[in-house]
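This is your field. Pick holes in the following sequence-structure pair:
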Amino acid sequence: MANEEKQKIKATIILEMIGRPKEHLAEVMAKIIEEIGKEKGVKVTGKKDNEPKNLENKDKEGKVIEVSEEQMLYTTFSEVDLEMDDIFSLIKISFVYMPANIEIVSPHDFKFSNLDFGSLMNGVIAKLHNYDSVAKAAMMENQILARKLAQFSKPRLNIEPADQDDNGKKKSKK
């Protein structure tokens, strides 16, 4: 059997961010794309950055609410073209950087051995278990904090007998 050369995977991912200040978003986006390019088996072949835009704050009726500059949120996204050595690199990018969208440009079809596919699925399951344990730990910590907060914020009732006035003196019956 001839030694088959693995075909590279080409994909475009969209990364989205929200935050403030506006300048910070562009810096963080650039750092994230740089980190993706440092991943083993991944090459950034192109990118298209978009200018951060003001995210309008709206009330329940959909009317725009004016906010101060310190409270203003911005949103941005980048389209990043990638070339990866294998499907495992694509899966890793998906879990680590959580793009909003992935478009696989090539190859058109994928062929997996059962061992490769099993390995891929075990990696996905391991990540899901990790996320699940983090979420459960956060929920438990939240419950503990809520209980502690409830202990400290119990209302102190100052109940006075009905036959006393506000000064604690007996009301006269007339």
